[in-house]
Amino acid sequence: MRCEVVAVGTELLLGQIVDTNSSWIGEQLALIGIDSLHQVKVGDNFGRMEATIRQALERSDAVICCGGLGPTQDDITREVIAKIMGVEMVRDDAIAAHIRNIFEGRGRPMPENNLRQADVPDGANTIEQMPGTAPGLMCPVGDKMIYAVPGVPHEMREMMEGTVLQDLRRRSGETSVIHSRVIRTWGYGESALAETLADHVNTLDESGHATIAFQASGIEGIKVRVTAKAESHDAAEAIIAAEVELIRKAIGDHIFGYDDETMESVVLDALRDRRLTVAAGESLTGGILASRITALDPAMKVFKGAVVSPVGDLDDEDGAVAAARAARDAIGTDIGIAVIGPRDPEAHPPGTVFAAVALPDSDHAKTVALPGVLSRMRSYAVITLLDLLRKRLA
Amino acid sequence: MRCEVVAVGTELLLGQIVDTNSSWIGEQLALIGIDSLHQVKVGDNFGRMEATIRQALERSDAVICCGGLGPTQDDITREVIAKIMGVEMVRDDAIAAHIRNIFEGRGRPMPENNLRQADVPDGANTIEQMPGTAPGLMCPVGDKMIYAVPGVPHEMREMMEGTVLQDLRRRSGETSVIHSRVIRTWGYGESALAETLADHVNTLDESGHATIAFQASGIEGIKVRVTAKAESHDAAEAIIAAEVELIRKAIGDHIFGYDDETMESVVLDALRDRRLTVAAGESLTGGILASRITALDPAMKVFKGAVVSPVGDLDDEDGAVAAARAARDAIGTDIGIAVIGPRDPEAHPPGTVFAAVALPDSDHAKTVALPGVLSRMRSYAVITLLDLLRKRLA
């Protein structure tokens, strides 16, 4: 079963609003096993909207139109759908009463314009959920279906979750379930990771039980998404667990976490488990490390603080160790961490930085070359340093 | 002139990544007067990519394909474009050498896969900017043009700004020029700002010389964009200068800067002009202030550092002053700044924070209530504190 998404609104094309609705809908469709092979943005123009929706309907079983259901003259999604259905517009008294109620509830006079929202294509069904003044519509065209939902994200989501996804699922006759898990990795390039797992991926493709996708995500590392389709939740979870175990064996400690875990959350959890506290010396990273970690530990119970200051006289691994120890001793924690750059970057390979972890009984330092301009290097340096600490704690 | 945007990548359809690239490109096209009437997302599938790009090319003068230029087997944008051009793929030795160099610079072995990125359609021109291993391409099809740029946002932007937008503008033959200036404001809500400027905006709409748009941008404040279209650069600039002067008179010191200026850059410039140095005490803001300022002053010549630590015993304006003075004295600067939150937020109105500036001869503190959840409050607190310093320096 295929379902396309058409996002309506000139403001989307002009970049005044980013179309996050289509992404969210795409994710929901994938999770119930419905293919969404095209997603299109189109402006508030009758002819182009009609052509776009007709084309989507031709190559798919259903279309979700998002936006253009408001009260103003440029909100024409209802009229365009009526033309495609080959029907007239009719006033829906129940919707009109609902809209009047909403305005009365707010104690505001209703602009006459708003009743336009109660004019719907003859033969369309109203979606039960209606959190705002825009009604959602289910508009049959032959054996296919156009769903019209508002562009306001929370209104759209309520209708999708309350009606549209279930209706699509019922129409698809699909009984299998789809689960996925994200494996978070650090330290591999995308192609190197793909090469390491290539044989495995090929075997998987043949078995057809699960799929693996790679997603390079900058300072979030490379995400490996394992997706399984099966007859039950338990069966899907079992396939994923087996896959994850195989990948874990292949790439080992390059895996720092799963799903919503981040490098910061993983390191904080490890420190908390071991009842250890940490402080950071920041020169190159200028406070980025502290800002990321304190977002998760705002009361600074585990990460107890940072000293942000220019790099000192030693600009090598020893300098990084000195900065880590200084932060640890100044703030009074068990562990100190620091990453510094050379005073004269020309004297080293591009992107060279020195990272250090000062544990209670030993120091550990590492020199790495990071890619990109300074702003990216700074972010990479933070994760590199946290990864060094993570491996020391493991 | 019309230019469509085709965003390539199955991960976009699955909602794993939100397509911000098309929005950004749409905004840039609008600013140079080029219509972008459709924007499409399509997965990594040869047949669907080919059909989508062909259709875009049919109804527009140019197409920008974004993504699918990576080194892995599912990156097939190059091959699809070659088919549409009706040409073979050829190895570009200059690109191959460039890719090898990038890997050598990082001291990493180059996976053989990566050389796929040097295979380009015969007859395509390389875009000069190449910040990563993915080359940007200009691929003529008859008298139309397909531009291929990477999906990595910063690589895409560098190529768009360095080459593609200029090439499109040249091809469009447009002789009138469009200029715009962004007025950066802080301290107004969007509707309050719009109300203050309402009469003025109505007059403008009638004159037709310039347009004004408001853009609420969170911690960037509210941007007021003035756009003018005229026969010459000088004429457009004159219209804008007159507009900006009128707005300046209406909203005064709520304006902190223009165009690419940020609150940080404005404050740093003011300090630099006055040969003053500053240090920050961060508890509530946990390093965010330092990370934002050191991005502009990485050697810490003006902003000489920060102390990130939990809030002390005094959690009021006096506590903020104490933290500002402590940072100033510990790091040895002319000025100290700090913003703290109450230890018990329940005892104060929601979002209450205390900001302070400790100058060499006087202290200044302010209590404000900031909106939103903690992460937004932290960011707002940084800008509130910098704005307090900005007004003191003015």
Shape by Cα distribution of chain A: elongated
| Arrangement of strands in the largest sheet of chain A | 2-1-3-8-7-6
Give the tally of structural domains of chain A: 3
**Low-confidence runs of chain A:** none
N→C terminal distance of chain A: 46 Å
- Give the strand content of chain A: 15-25%
Compact overview of the structure:
Two copies of one chain form a homodimer. In chain A, 42% of the residues lie in helices and 24% in strands.
Write the layout of secondary structure elements.
Two copies of one chain form a homodimer.
Chain A: E1 3-8, H1 10-13, H2 20-31, E2 38-42, H3 46-59, E3 62-66, H4 77-85, E4 89-91, H5 93-106, E5 119-121, E6 125-126, E7 137-141, E8 144-149, H6 153-172, E9 177-185, H7 190-196, H8 198-207, E10 210-216, E11 222-230, H9 233-251, E12 255-258, H10 263-273, E13 278-282, H11 288-296, E14 303-308, H12 317-331, E15 335-340, E16 352-358, E17 363-369, H13 374-393
Helix pairs in contact in A: 2-6, 3-4, 10-13
